[in-house]
């Protein structure tokens, strides 16, 4: 269960960012912002390395004492960043990958919505909101 | 089987509707309708550019993106691959389709040559939209020498 989920556009501005309500939101916004540097580093490292396979899933970006940050970049250079509680050690890599895949599918659906202009903030998509809510920590 | 034909009919109707009000507009009006068509294709291309490469791995260079357009995008929209892709390695690519499905039912040869550009505008926009989502700004034009063979020229300006 994630604590914060963010969708960042190609030009590095946020399209969608949501954190678990009890915590200090600004702290998460800052974490996502700093993780963008790590994402850019990984992308350029992948470009230079002569690897045949280039994965979309970037893996663990950096761990802090309370949280772990995971990243994923799509072919259209849209980045997904997920902040997860460190104490929740039951979350395995496969689960994070499947969460990112669900995010990617929902984002694609938003993109295909004719009432959505690419580049706008994702504000009116209820389906996307519901999907993100299902992935975040349930706090009453 | 019926799915492919739905898009073709819809496309024909879109073109017919845009030209219905003024069957012989001057060059200004013609350009407006062509821009509208191209704009529609652009938005669709943006959405397709997001949806189609979903499970494929990240593209490494421009040529990979063009190959993706010729194979996956063309198969998804027209159920066939592009027949040839040529480049001058300076940012210009020529994509040739020897039997373009939107022109195929019209004629075979030189008949209706003047009408052909109307039916290519949407596809030009489609290519431009898909390229834009994948991070490449480009200018796409189309030309027809003899139906149903058509060439799409993609020019990517060097930054």
From TrEMBL, chain A:
PANTHER family: TRAFFICKING PROTEIN PARTICLE COMPLEX SUBUNIT 2
One Pfam family hit: Sedlin_N
Gene Ontology biological process: endoplasmic reticulum to Golgi vesicle-mediated transport
Family the UniProt entry places it in: Belongs to the TRAPP small subunits family. Sedlin subfamily.
Keyword Transmembrane helix carried by entry: no
Top-level taxon of the source organism: Eukaryota
InterPro entries: Longin-like_dom_sf, Sedlin, TRAPPC2L
Name listed for the protein in its UniProt record: Trafficking protein particle complex subunit 2-like protein
GO cellular component, one term: perinuclear region of cytoplasm
Keyword line: Cytoplasm, Endoplasmic reticulum, ER-Golgi transport, Golgi apparatus, Transport
Key word Cytoplasm present: yes
Compartment(s) where it occurs, according to its Swiss-Prot or TrEMBL record: Cytoplasm, Perinuclear region; Endoplasmic reticulum; Golgi apparatus
Gene3D superfamilies in UniProt: 3.30.450.70
TrEMBL record, chain B:
Keyword Phosphoprotein assigned: yes
Any single GO BP term: endoplasmic reticulum to Golgi vesicle-mediated transport
Annotated keywords: Endoplasmic reticulum, ER-Golgi transport, Golgi apparatus, Phosphoprotein, Transport
Protein localization: Endoplasmic reticulum; Golgi apparatus, cis-Golgi network
Gene Ontology, cellular component aspect: cis-Golgi network; endoplasmic reticulum; trans-Golgi network; TRAPP complex
InterPro entries: NO_sig/Golgi_transp_ligand-bd, TRAPP_component, TRAPPC6/Trs33
Family: Belongs to the TRAPP small subunits family. BET3 subfamily.
Role of this protein: May play a role in vesicular transport during the biogenesis of melanosomes.
Quaternary assembly: Part of the multisubunit transport protein particle (TRAPP) complex. Heterodimer with TRAPPC3. The heterodimer TRAPPC3-TRAPPC6A interacts with TRAPPC2L. Interacts with TRAPPC2L.
Protein name stated in the entry: Trafficking protein particle complex subunit 6A
Organism encoding this protein: Rhinopithecus roxellana (Golden snub-nosed monkey)
Gene giving rise to this polypeptide: TRAPPC6A
